[in-house]
Description:
Layout (H helix, E strand, L loop, with lengths): L6 E5 L6 E5 H5 L3 E3 L6 E3 L6 H26 L5
Antiparallel strand pairs: 1-2, 3-4
Bound molecules: zinc ion.
The site of zinc ion has 8 residues, from loops.
Amino acid sequence: MDLDRIEIEIECPRCSFFAKILYRDARLRDVIICRGCKGNIQLDDHMNACRKAKRQVAAAFQELEDAFAKLNKAITLRF
Ligand SMILES: [Zn+2]
């Protein structure tokens, strides 16, 4: 799964216009232009929230995989 293409909704700190950014933009701390006030929004990830989110998503997928593996073992075909 490509987390970089996940959309995140943010609010412009100046005009409160909602903008959609990609996880990738946030991860790279990109500057986006607000469609409301045309101002620059510097994406800040000083808490490394992106990396934390990525770890959490990876853990959730692992859990899902484990659950399916268990299910596969539970369902056996008998003749
Ligand atoms: Zn704005």
